[in-house]
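Entry 14. Ran structure prediction on the chain below.
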Amino acid sequence: MEIKGLSAIQAYTAARPATEPSDGAGAAAKGIISDFASTLAQSEGTAKSAMVGDADPHALVTALAQTELVVETAVAVRNRVVEAYQEILRMPV
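Output, structure tokens:
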């Protein structure tokens, strides 16, 4: 009986890496998220500088346009993920 149990454990251990995300995908997602956060932080810093008169108004407009683009991209990606999840839920079992 222990031999069957050992065989099942070995099979599970061998199949487990297939269900886990690869390091490449995780690193790419972390990079995208950190780029998103850094863009927002830079834009916020530029906006603060413009409020106290230290930044060029042109730099403020550029920073706001960049922020708008980043947020619109994040929302579009989120919408696609939600749509994909809803399609999965509609699949017959």
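Residues 22-90 form one domain. Will compare against last week's run tomorrow.
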